[in-house]
TrEMBL record:
EC category name: hydrolase
Protein name in the entry: beta-glucosidase
Catalytic activity as recorded in UniProt: Hydrolysis of terminal, non-reducing beta-D-glucosyl residues with release of beta-D-glucose
Gene giving rise to this polypeptide: bglX
Pfam families: Fn3-like, Glyco_hydro_3, Glyco_hydro_3_C
Native species: Danxiaibacter flavus
PROSITE patterns, A to Z: GLYCOSYL_HYDROL_F3
Amino acid sequence: MNKKAGWLLLAATIAATPSFSQVKEKVSKVDVVVNKSTMDVFVDNLIKHMTIEEKIGQLNLVTPGGAVTGSVVSGDVDNKIKRGEVGGLFGITGAEKIRKAQEIAVNNSRLKIPLIFGLDVIHGHRTIFPIPLGISCSWDMPMIEKSAQIAAKEATADGLAWVFSPMVDICRDPRWGRISEGSGEDPYLGSQIARAMVKGYQGNDLAAKNTVIACVKHYALYGAAEGGRDYNTVDMSRIQMFQDYMPPYKAAVDAGVGSVMSSFNVIDGVPATVNKWLLTDLLRKDWKFKGLVVTDYTAVNETIDHGMGNLQEVSALSLKAGVDMDMVGEGFLTTLKKSLNEGKVTVKQIEDACRRVLEAKFKLGLFEDPYRYCDPSRAGDIFNADNRAAARDFATRSAVLLKNGNNVLPLKKSGTIALVGPLADNHLNMLGTWSVSGDFVNNVSVLQGMQNVGGSNVNIIHAKGANISDDTAFAKRVNAFMNEIDIDKRSAQEMLDEAVTAAQKADVVVAVLGESANMSGESSSLSNIDLQPSQKRLLDALKKTGKPVVIVLMNGRPMTISEENAKADAILDVWFSGTEAGNAIADLLFGDRVPSGKLTASFPVNVGQIPVYYNHKNTGRPYVKGGPAKFKSNYLDIPNEPLFEFGYGLSYTTFNYSPVKLSSTSMTKTGNITASVTVTNSGNYDGEEVVQLYIRDMVGSVSRPVKELKGFQKILLKKGENKEVTFTINEEMLKFFNSDLKYVSEPGDFKVFIGPSSATTNEAGFILK
Ligand code: BGC
């Protein structure tokens, strides 16, 4: 605590506005305490001088509009701030605008406690990076960390100090639209990414001007909504919870995340937002989380519909469960005092929550300088050339090459290319879901990117070819935020004819197909994850021309594209790649960059195969590779393997793996062994490869998965080059949750796999003694 903060403390602790001399006289006395102590002393002192209404006010997080995902927007915000009834605001941006709001708190509220300003900064702030599912496919932790760091720099230059990210919900069901916001299906990879994001956002000093408090969400298990239907029931065993779903939240907590957002769903029948086991016993007691718990949007109120009681009851339940801040619903603001008077909550419970809000503000340095993040001279930190260059680079590393028949890719920078499809020259959809502060005009479409990168020897003929969807009722539902499914005035046939004519004149067709930005994301579950019929018809027509067809797929989820896979010559999955989408896609299509992304969520053969994920159990009648069979655990009509498995992704070059070499075939619990392979770049391009290590525990007290990711290394190999890649295996990597929920290893046989995807059969075995 420095002197300035001491002064502010005084200002806050003297009821009447103090004169300068009063402050001066008292400062030395307070400094004695303050200098010797920590944040606790400051917050203790402040709390002592707060009325109960002011304490409850700190628990109130409101939005004056602009980021509305529920039916409620907060009203009368200015006056509430003046009355000390608001702890934080979200949904506004801009250094000037936020300064004005902060001034209301600092100049007009009794104790002048600064507000905390948050926002959904999910995959970049103004400069938008690939959607989280996309960027996870880079398997590049330094890069992911960097993406969060840039986002934090832009956000803080824009007035913000708190971001509602990372979203780390494990998901095995691509019908769930929010799979786009997370890192896919694997707990190990998800944990690495959670850590990288927290580090990137928070840095080493929360009070630094370019770092923010991160908020890991949605705690917990939100990605396991039944049937992939958003906000739906979650029900799973504790073993599965701890083994497969909890690790990324825990990793974020271990990395020091400053806040946690409670999820909408129930866990063991109790909504997360009123779940004491989840928010206090596990999070605070077991995991030692010390930060702030905020609810999701109106999540307290929504527990009324879950059947938890009326607003007063659920608000009390939520506070007692461990929630500190109530997002938008104002149940805390309007009922906690009554509950206190009726003995249903205690002053201590309110003060504990209040303390955690104040601590977050303290850590951010807001008591020292409430306008720390309102510096208009930092405007140049936002949406600048460096950030855009980073966005372009990140996007190239996040794309996944799913197919490349006859090496149709990369394209030559000569000849004629027919660039068709509803997403080929489309700005509104480049950024993907949750890009609230993105620029929907100044981003690069695929057409622009191909013109930029292709140079003057390439002739590009562009035709839209089809609408994203022809279904007007569906389009209306999707277009809640903007007209992203824009149904053309021309007839479907006219558009198709134009595309076919373009294709006939071309050497190769690039068809940019897929979803619109908000066909995935929140409240965007789908029962059918095929390409829309309009686009299927376009692909069929293009195919009939006999020209090679490259699909550039834009999508916020794994889609069911078996048919398209059969028809297209090549498929490059670019997700929604952000501000620099078109340039990055063109870099890849023309071979200036070589694809290196690997899937982090399996692509099902069809929706009936969901949930499909690589780390499944074996069953007693395991599927036999080669196809379905009677009396085996399979469907008779499709194989068990997904269309594209976790970890899968091609390059323009090829990589060969030597057999796995172990330093020993036995290991003790205190020792370790190494597993290595030599990877050779056997193709014609320099390229990056994600070398993946999986382990299988052959015998356990509970049935163990057929494979679990336990390590990976992303390496760059020049053509012809080879490298030995070594992983060290220790006991920690062999542990799992047993029936008593103890995290243990058990002696016995293990298999080690090292290869280019989760389907690898490149294996060796060892015994844990
Ligand atoms: C979403 C959160 C988001 C919040 C605030 C909710 O509807 O579930 O992910 O952070 O809104 O915008």
